[in-house]
Amino acid sequence: MRVAREPIMARPLLKIHRYFRCKPVHFFSFILLYLTAGSLVFLHSGFSSDTSTTGASRSVRDPLISEGGGGAGGGSSTSDGLGLLGRVFKETRRAPQRFGPPWMKKNRAQDVPEWAGRGVDHHTRSHGAKGKTTKGMDDGRAKYIGCYVDDTQKRALRGVSFFDYKKMTVFRCQDNCAERGYLYAGLEFGAECYCGHKIQAPNVSESECNMECKGEKSNLCGGPKRLSIYRLELSQESARRYGSAIFKGCFKRPDNVTLALPASAVIKNMSVDKCVDMCTEKEFSLAALAGEKCHCGFPTPLFTLHDHEDEELCLQRCAGEDFESCGNIDFFVVYQTQVQDNRCLDRRFLPSRTSGTVALASFPGAGNTWARHLIELATGWELLSYYFDGSLYNKGFKGERDHWRSGRTICIKTHESGRKEIEAFDASILMIRNPYKALMAEFNRKYGGHIGFASQAHWRGTEWPEFVKNYAPWWASHTLDWLKYGKKVQVVHFEDLKRDLFSRLKGMIIFLGLEVSEDRLLCVEGQKDGNFKRSGLRKLEYDPYTAEMRATIDGLIRTVDTALRKRNLSGVPEDYRPR
């Protein structure tokens, strides 16, 4: 019976085969439909598996969606459909768009990790349950003061904000707010950080701040529309800022104030905010408060901001702000706004090939990219690189695309240290940085990118000791090789350049044989950070250097110091010494 049935069962398949053989287009259409149906089944199974976990957490996610103010509003049937797609493609989902100063936008997370399907147990999570490190934190850096309401229409903390849906930690939020001079740092929804000078909302029960931080499960970072707020102990440098405006100091009234600061107005109930806002609106980078009058302008040879006065000369309370000084008719309180000074932003390649080659050399992590940024702004010429770094090219360093021997530049960035490589250059600017700082900076770059940070696992794992073992000797040999084989070397210490940028950068430009534009140098002072400054210092909560590491590095410092002095150069700065 089985033999007789086989031809009968095969007949339909044979007919189908003959049909598609005659009409191959139909065959491919059939295959396409089959694959589409399979994909739909796969997606449906994904939605079904999410139902059990996302149903309970939808009420937690919706506040964030509604706060975004962007295209995906929460609550409608349309947004529910988009939410399903968002869960499928959660690795590429964008964080809600927020508005703020340009320098904060670069810190915002671009990818949302797998948080969308995670519910929150409101009964079991609290500061007490997660440990005392958050609730009772008072380590000289910040003190936890409580859980507060946060209204999206009227924020509890009304300074700058940033978001990181993968790596937010309490320390990172505190560090960013402190660096910008805020008194308070608040964390919300496990991934959002808000800064402010005063809290403008009531406090609530600690149990309402119940969400784990995305970057550290041992701490809590607020909740839906709830802020875990810390009071910051500001350093002297941090305290010299006011929100998004940078405090520049107290300065004597310029001789020709109308020419030096071309825009001005009398403001009723004067405050720092009002003057900064006015100058920002008029697109000036400086806001100078003189009692009831606000002046706006740019740094120029008529008003360089180099001659600071005693701040007591500017002590006059603002009419509209109890805790800030607004200066007076003779001494101005000056802030730098977020307006970009465009006088030093134009850059181009040399129009004709140059005969000589000058190196901008440094050990990795010693400030080479930063120095390159400064020289480009101060001269208007693109600098080339010995390498090609796509991330640097995308950030505006167009010289990355040219071969370093093209001759279309005044200077070439390099980290090379061999004799053959060094002798290929006719002269060099040698950047040297404290090895303790340089090693940590390069370790962060190696494991976190140009503006990222190495993880705690990398610091505490085998990577860090191995890195120090291999790279610390290179820090010394790099400097020694350039001093030995370099034909004409100008030594620049990173710390000196940071401390006295104007005169040190001026000396570097003269060394390159170029004319100095004082207006451009003054412009550079206001644009000095560029795109590769890490957000905050992010000091580790422990010293990563062991006693053995320190003994080795201190010996290398003494070796470099001796080599510099033998060439009649100043030795290493004092802060290189053992701390």
From TrEMBL:
Residue spans of biased composition, Gly residues class: 67-76
Instruction: Write down the Gene3D superfamilies for this protein, in alphabetical order.
Output: P-loop containing nucleotide triphosphate hydrolases
Q: Where is this region: Disordered?
A: 49-81
Highest taxon listed in the record's lineage: Eukaryota
UniProt GO molecular function? sulfotransferase activity
Q: Do you know which PROSITE patterns this protein is assigned to?
A: WSC (PS51212)
Give the family from UniProt.
Belongs to the WSCD family.
Query: What PANTHER family does the database record attribute to this sequence?
Result: SIALATE:O-SULFOTRANSFERASE 2, WSCD FAMILY MEMBER CG9164
- Annotated protein name in UniProt: WSC domain-containing protein 2-like
What organism is this sequence from? Sinocyclocheilus grahami
What does the organism's lineage look like at the top? Answer: Eukaryota, Metazoa, Chordata, Craniata, Vertebrata
What is this protein's gene name?
Answer: LOC107595945
